[in-house]
Design brief:
It is a single chain. The protein is 17% helix and 32% strand. It is an alpha+beta fold. The chain has two domains: 57 residues, SH3 type barrels (Roll), CATH 2.30.30.40; 101 residues, GMP Synthetase, Chain A, domain 3, CATH 3.30.300.130. The strands form two sheets. It has a six-stranded antiparallel β-sheet, with no helix packed on it. Strands 7-8-9 form a three-stranded mixed β-sheet. Strand 8, helix 2 and strand 9 form a beta-alpha-beta unit. The longest helix has 13 residues. The mean pLDDT is 91.
């Protein structure tokens, strides 16, 4: 979503202050400008700052929860390692920094992904970085990725580790990310 929509919160909802990562509650009746709706989370501007609101609170913004957003258990169908690897990358592409309209894969934040078979399923290991070491949203973004990966079929565990080596820089942005950001 590129255009800004203004709404009044219909009820109290949990939010995370951007970029500090501090949890807080936005009160019913607060006027917010929705600036980004990507990956099942919402970035809003209000009270002079930016805040991330999760999909569970979409109704407070008078929005419908995005399709595919669920709190139910992961599906149990069998998939091949090749199918699962594609699903992992597709899932990671649904995760966004709340300040940047490019997914974490195309932004160049994913440094490594490993898929290990273990008895009864798979374990996923992801190493990712952030655009800035001081970003308080790192654990939020990593947690979002981890939760989405745990929903994939056959996945018994997922670890998303934030690393700083090598340091991220703009040259790591994929062609699609560069196009979205107008860097071409």
């Amino acid at each position: 979503m590129q255009n800004v929509t203004s709404v009044e919160l219909s009820r109290d909802c949990d939010a995370i202050e951007i970029p500090a990562g501090n949890p807080m509650t936005l009160r019913a009746g607060t006027r917010v400008d929705i600036t980004q709706t990507l990956g099942g989370a919402y970035t809003v501007h209000t009270m002079g700052g930016l805040y991330r609101i999760s999909s569970k609170d979409a109704d407070a913004l008078a929005l419908q929860r995005e399709a595919g957003q669920s709190n139910s258990a992961p599906p149990t169908e069998k998939v091949s390692p090749e199918q699962l690897e594609k699903m992992i990358w597709d899932t990671l592409k649904t995760c966004y920094d709340p300040e940047i309209p490019v997914n974490i894969v195309d932004l160049g934040l994913i440094y490594d992904m490993r898929l290990e078979h273990q008895e009864g399923g798979y374990r996923i290991g992801v190493k990712m970085t952030l655009t800035a070491p001081g970003c308080g949203m790192g654990t939020v973004i990593a947690g979002d990725a981890q939760q989405k990966l745990l929903y994939l079929p056959g996945v018994q565990g997922a670890d998303v580790e934030i690393v700083w080596d090598p340091p991220w820089h703009q040259s790591m942005i994929a062609a699609e990310g560069r196009r979205i950001l107008g860097l071409d």
